[in-house]
Structures are given as C-alpha cells and as structure tokens.
Design brief:
Largest sheet: 2 strands, antiparallel
Distance between the termini: 34 Å
Helix content: over 70%
Shape: globular
CATH class: Mainly Alpha
Strand order of the largest sheet: 1-2
Strand content: under 5%
Radius of gyration: 23 Å
Length: 277
C-alpha cells in the first residue's frame, strides 16, 4: 500500500493538481514565475487543441486496424504452439517472443533503417521488381509505425493467450476428438471460447498501449517530417511540457488522455462481457 501510494496515487494527484494551475509571470513576462488557480481552463484548451484531437483520432484509427491484426497473429501463434503436431516449440516460442525482449527504442531504430531509402534491403528488393513504396510517406508512415508495434508486441500477447491455453483441461479436447470433432472445430468451438477472457485482457492492454504510443513515432520522426511533434497524444504532452515549457497544460492533456483511455477500455470490457453473457 505504501508503494502504491508513493508511486501511483501521489503522482496522479499531483498531476491533477498541476492541471488546475496556470503559470504567471510579472514584469512583461520576464519576471519570476508564479502560479494561480486556473480551474478547468487547461482542460478547455486541450479539448480545443486541434493537433491534440487529431492525434487522438489518429490513434483510434491506428488501434482499429493494428490491434485486431496483432491479436489475430498472436492467437494463431498460440494455437499453433498449443497443437500436438507442432515441432521445435521452444525454439519458435523464443523466436516469437524475442522482439518483445528488445527495448522499444532499439526496435524502432532497427526498423527505421529498414524504411530508409538507400539503406533498406526491403526497398531495394521491391525496386528490383519495379515496386516503389515510400514507407515514410504521409499516407504510409502510420502503418509503418503499426508494423513496428505489431512486430514487437505480438509475441507478448501470444504468451498470455498460450498460457491460458496451457491451463485448460486436456480431457475436453480428447473427448471432442473421440466424438469426431476436427482440429478446426476444437480450436474454434472449444479453445477460443475458453480463452476469450485472456484475449479480452490482451485487447484492453493493447488499447491502453495504443493511446500511449510514444517511442516508435518519436524515433521515426527523426527521419521524416510527416511525423509531427504532436503526432500522438503522448508526444503532444511531452513536447508541451518540455518543448513549450508549459507543465500545467501538459498535465491537463495527460489527465484528459487518461480519462479517455479509461472510458474506452472500460467500455470495451463492458461490451465484450455483455456479448459473452
């Protein structure tokens, strides 16, 4: 409880308090800085900030496409590793999980080189067959970032789903096979419904992670102007705090993002639980 209080509740409370303050300066703006109670002024500014709103909408589009694709691959890998016909399971499990073991910044740097013309072997191979793709172009860069996130986090989500599969009683599958159920029927009618809570858990984690996206677009931004300082909500909060030197407004942006994330993830859980019932 002490750790939770010191590292969770107090920082959250301080951020909320900061978001209700505003910085004041005397002497034509060059005097000593002070503070005043601003109420909801910072929140009103955040809700009218077009770049911040655009970043939130961009991450919603990102999540609608990237999260289902990533969880689909994670589920398929988990089912394959759980199959009795799979060979070299330990090796392929390690290979699938290895990208998650890399720090996000390192993974982003590696993939950034693969997106860079003149350096990337992928671009060279595509050009050899007369296919021209600009991975850093304005219409593609978001999905290039999505590829990095999918590559890095699929193994992590796979491990959660695979652990849930391993905890299932195997006599259910044996009874189903004795009754004539095919492998496809066992997977779709038994395994997936039974591990649905684990899939929902990974979906909630992925939704939260999507709205908190920071490292990948920050690294890619060094290679292209198509990623702005406020490309994602987290980047907006960071650059408002340390670029514009406005921690009070940045705190309001962060709290607004946290509330929106909570509403979205809690709403998703309620919707899926209702469908499950």
């Amino acid at each position: 409880m002490v750790i939770f209080l010191v590292f969770q509740l107090i920082p959250v409370g301080y951020a909320i308090w900061q978001s209700l303050q505003a910085t004041t300066r005397s002497g034509l703006g060059i005097g000593a800085a002070g503070s005043r109670f601003a109420g909801l002024e910072n929140y009103a500014q955040a809700l009218q900030d077009q770049e911040f709103i655009a970043g939130v909408l961009r991450m919603l589009v990102f999540g609608v496409v990237q999260v289902p694709v990533m969880l689909f691959f994670a589920l398929v890998l988990a089912l394959l590793f759980d199959s009795s016909f799979a060979m070299f399971k330990k090796f392929f499990q390690f290979a699938a999980f290895l990208p998650y073991a890399l720090p996000g910044i390192v993974a982003s740097i590696l993939w950034s080189f693969l997106y860079l013309p003149g350096v990337s072997p992928i671009i060279a191979a595509l050009q050899a067959i007369n296919v021209k793709v600009d991975f850093l172009g304005p219409d593609v860069v978001l999905w290039s970032i999505a590829n990095i996130v999918t590559w890095q986090w699929t193994g992590y989500n796979m491990l959660i789903i695979f652990s849930a599969l391993q905890a299932l009683p195997h006599d259910i599958f044996e009874a189903a096979r004795i009754d004539g159920a095919s492998g496809w029927a066992v997977n779709t009618k038994i395994k997936i419904p039974l591990v649905l809570p684990a899939i929902i858990l990974t979906a909630v984690f992925s939704i939260i992670g999507t709205l908190q996206l920071f490292s990948e677009p920050t690294i890619v931004r060094t290679l292209t102007n198509n990623v702005t300082f406020k490309y994602t909500p987290n980047m907006a909060a960071y650059n408002i705090a340390f670029g514009a030197n406005n921690p009070n407004y940045a705190a309001a942006v962060a709290v607004t993002l946290a509330i929106f994330t909570f509403i979205l993830s809690f709403g998703f859980m309620k919707l899926t639980n209702r469908k499950e019932k």
